[in-house]
Amino acid sequence: MSQDNIIKLECSQCKNLGYMSHKNKKTLKDRLELKKFCKWCRSHIAHKETK
């Protein structure tokens, strides 16, 4: 897998980088947002893609 497909997911509440993921940048143009578990907030919160 190439490095340009790897993205970082940041918690929208506490701003910690908790997850790494990948996406197809040709089909998904806008930023990815997933609801994941944040181990610092201890709850399921939306995680947004960072630059």
UniProtKB/TrEMBL annotation:
InterPro entries: Ribosomal_bL33, Ribosomal_bL33_sf, Ribosomal_zn-bd
Record GO terms (molecular function): structural constituent of ribosome
Any one GO biological process: translation
Entry keyword set: Ribonucleoprotein, Ribosomal protein
Gene Ontology cellular component annotations, sorted alphabetically: cytoplasm; ribonucleoprotein complex; ribosome
Classification via Gene3D superfamilies: Ribosomal protein L33
Bilayer-spanning residue ranges: none
UniProt protein name: Large ribosomal subunit protein bL33
Native organism: Candidatus Uhrbacteria bacterium RIFOXYB2_FULL_57_15
Organism placement in taxonomy: Bacteria, Candidatus Uhriibacteriota
Gene: rpmG
